[in-house]
Design brief:
Length: about 140
C-alpha cells in the first residue's frame, strides 16, 4: 500500500472508519457495548466503518473503487453514522465513552469524505533519491 496515493481527507476518513468500528466494542450505554445493546444499528455502523476503511485501503493499493457519487459517498456515509450516533446521545441517559468516541469517528468520516470530494490536498512527498549534481564549473 502506498499512502502517497491518498489525500489528507482519505486518511482522515479511513482513521474515522477504523475508529468507528473499534469503538463499537467500548461501553455505549451503561456498561454495555453497542454489540450488546443493539440488533441492527451496530451492524449498520460496522458496515459504514469497515466500508470506508476498505475504500481508502483500495485507493492506497492503487485500485479506484467506483462509488456512486464518488468521494462524496464517503461523506454521506459519515453523515448517516453521525446522525445515528447523535440520536442515541440525545435519547440515552447513561452514555458511555464508546458513544462519544463513535461520534468523533463519524464526524471524522464526514469531514474526511468532504475533503476528499473537494479534491483534498495530498500529503507532502519526501524524495528518497539524492538531488542532481551541481552543474560543472565554467
Amino acid at each position: 500500500m502506498d499512502t502517497s496515493r491518498l489525500t489528507q481527507g482519505d486518511m482522515i476518513a479511513g482513521a474515522g472508519g477504523l475508529g468507528l468500528f473499534l469503538f463499537l466494542f467500548l461501553d455505549w450505554i451503561l456498561e454495555a457495548s453497542a454489540w450488546e445493546v443493539f440488533d441492527l444499528t451496530d451492524i449498520l455502523l460496522a458496515i459504514i466503518g469497515i466500508g470506508v476503511l476498505l475504500v481508502v485501503a483500495a485507493r492506497a493499493a492503487g485500485t479506484e473503487v467506483g462509488l456512486p457519487g464518488g468521494p462524496a459517498a464517503i461523506a454521506l456515509a459519515g453523515f448517516a453514522a453521525t446522525v445515528i450516533v447523535l440520536v442515541f446521545i440525545f435519547e440515552g441517559e447513561e452514555r458511555g465513552i464508546g458513544l462519544w468516541l463513535s461520534l468523533l469517528a463519524a464526524l471524522a468520516i464526514t469531514y474526511g469524505g468532504w475533503q476528499a470530494a473537494r479534491g483534498g490536498v495530498r500529503p507532502a512527498h519526501h524524495a528518497t533519491t539524492s538531488p542532481p549534481p551541481p552543474p560543472p564549473a565554467a
